[in-house]
Amino acid sequence: MTDTEVRKLLRQMKNDDSQRAFHRFYDLTYDRLFRIAYYFCKREEWAQEIVLDVFMNLWNQRITLPEIKNIEDYCFVLTKNAALNYISKESKYTNNEQETVIESADTSCSPEELFISEELFAIYVKALDRLPQRCREVFIHVREEKKSYDQTAKELDITVNTVSVQLQKAENKLKELIRKFYDR
Amino acid sequence: MEHTEERIVKILEKLIASSHAPQGQYSAKATYPILRKKIFGRHLIFVRRSLAAAATIGVLCVMAWWGYQSFYATQTISVYAQSNIRNISLPDGTRITLNRYSSITYPKKFKEQREVSLNGEAYFEVEHDSRHPFVVKTSTIKVEDLGTRFNISAYQQSPTITTALIEGSVNVIDNIHRRNILLKPGETALYNKKSQQLSQQTADRISDDIAWRSGSFVFEHCSISEVAERLSNSFNVTIKITDKTLSDYHINAKFCHKEDLKTILDVLQQAGYFNYQLTNNQILLYKRTNSK
User: Fold this and answer.
1) I want to staple B44 with a disulfide (CB 3.0 to 4.6 A). Which of A85, A105, A156, B40 is the partner?
2) Across the interface, which of B18, B26, B36 has its CB nearest the CB of A34?
């Protein structure tokens, strides 16, 4: 999502109460917010409910949105807070202990390195969002959904070679990002 | 600390495992209807049909209530035209021709003022009665008849509202800024919803404005964007112009034999004005290239 397009939509939402603009903003933002909500709560039904609440809040606050400097970061925080609230409410009923540290049996790496900090995750999500559409789709199909190159090629109507190229592109970008994060 | 390729790969794997994209019933598409119902419910849809600019949710709730009250208090009748033009006679003798995908709402029993609401386009032949003025309300302007025949084009999705007077005299009133224009036969009032300006034009082609009544389309020095808009309104399809430079290109064309949309588009394509493509329930217009 380009920043200028999002800004335009937010202005339309504020000035014209445009449902159409809101729908478009929703289409551009939903996946990313779902991802964030899921990162915290690890349950699809919960993530969906959380994101629904976040969008409702965004609509209700539409008058103030165009003035916000960084809407991406703002949405991250909104979603995180909504998710944590939701989890704390749910935990009263389900007694679930929330895993926030991803542990590894692999002892060759120090625990600090394998702990996925929230900050890194936020950057990862932003970067995913910024990948060109085809590139992101391929990455999600192959790495997240664990589909084969063949299956991915078929579903996205591209060649296996394109899958390989796009996947490489995505992974390089993301690895670069991780490297930069730890070298700062 | 040095980060080997191996470590970076491991971290990336952890990142991938920490979350995933929404799918199936949790996808954006599947979830939107739930969101829409949650935020906008049913009242807002009712109100949007009769208001141009929506205000805050508070005001809308009040308006919805008012609308609801109104309905039961006065027993209104609504007539909707779909893909065919409809002719209606009102109880007072006024005749209305409704263009496609347009609607008119009027009370079962007229009060002091004979008030009807219009969304879309209609041609009016008003039964004159000086004691009971006939008023057509659209989203933002109203047209007061002071005698006989006029045409109003007030599609919700159009940026302007056009009133063309054929015979007699009408007063076009802008509700928001309390301005009005008194039209004489042959004159047209144009209301721009965005700038909220009401202006007057002498229509040298009034007959073209009402050509639609016989199923005709007359485009006289019309820009492609205007052509797209009129076809879009009449056939209830979305028409998008993909090349900006095409929008301002002007054409002349007449379709007087109740041609359907495909025929009209084919003819215009043959004439070299543009290429068109039907995809996903919308029509796209492309600039014509000479490479063939």
Assistant:
1) B40
2) B26
Strand partners, B126: B148
What are residue B103's DSSP bridge partners?
B80, B119
Residue A63 tokens, joined = 């008058």
Amino acid at B288: R
Distances (CA, A) of B154 to A160, B11, B137: 52, 59, 10
Q: How far apart, in whole angstroms, are the C-alpha atoms of residue B175 and residue A80?
A: 46
Q: For residue B217, what is the enclosing H or E element? A: strand B217-223
CA-based nearest distance A116→chain B, Å: 7
pLDDT at B248: 80
Q: How many CB atoms lie within 10 A of CB A152?
A: 23
CA distance A15 to A8: 10
CB neighbourhood size of B265 (10 A): 22
H or E element: which one contains B148? strand B141-154
Q: Say if B11 is an interface residue toward chain A (CB within 8 Å).
A: yes
pLDDT digits (tens, 9 = 90+) for B161-188: 788 777 777 888 877 777 888 888 778 8
Contacts of A19 in chain B (CB under 8 A): 36, 40
Distance, in Å, from the CA atom of A66 to the CA atom of B152, rounded to the nearest integer, reads 37
B15 touches chain A (CB under 8 A): yes
- Cβ pair A6, A22 in contact under 8 A: no
How confident is the prediction for chain A on average, in pLDDT?
85
Helix (H) / strand (E) element for B69: namely helix B57-74
pLDDT digits (tens, 9 = 90+) for B278-289: 887 788 888 876
Alpha-carbon distance B49 to nearest alpha carbon in chain A (angstroms): 13
